[in-house]
Structures are given as structure tokens and as C-alpha cells.
Amino acid sequence: MDLRLIIGRLLLAIGLLLVAAAWLAPTTIRTQLYGTNLNLAWGIVLIASGSLFIFTARKS
Fold first, then answer.
1. Contact of 39 with 31, CB cutoff 8 Å
2. For residue 18, what are the CA distances in angstroms to 54, 55, 60?
3. How many Cα atoms occupy the beta-carbon half-sphere of 31 within 13 Å?
4. What's the rounded Cα separation, in Å, for the pair 54 and 48?
């Protein structure tokens, strides 16, 4: 099994957990840092990175 596939799945799972945590958090926690929801932002970054890892593993 390709290592990129394992890393991609891990990043994808953590990203999905962060996005879920961002949606379930109360609004006071969401907007503490300059009105930015960091869990949502980093969740999207990790989902994109994990998808890229999985895509490159499947292409080779």
C-alpha cells in the first residue's frame, strides 16, 4: 500500500472532524479570534491536502 494513501486518509479524517467541530461549536467560541472560525478554515485545508494525497496515490 502506498504511504500517500494512508497519509491522505488520515488528513481527510482529521479535516472532517475539524469541520464537524466547527459546525457544532457555539457561536461565542467560533468568533473569538477576529471573527474567524479557525477549525473550519484548517478543516478545509486538511480536506484539500488529504484529497490531493489520495488523488496522487491513485494516479500512480
1. no
2. 19, 21, 29
3. 4
4. 10
C-beta neighbour count of 30 within 10 angstroms: 16
User: For the chain, what is the domain count?
Assistant: 1
Domain limits at 24? Answer: 3-59
Give the pTM: 0.86
Is residue 50 classed exposed, middle or buried when 0-12, 13-18 and 19+ CB atoms within 10 A define those classes?
A: buried
Among 6-10, 22-26, 31-35, 48-52, where is mean pLDDT lowest?
A: 31-35
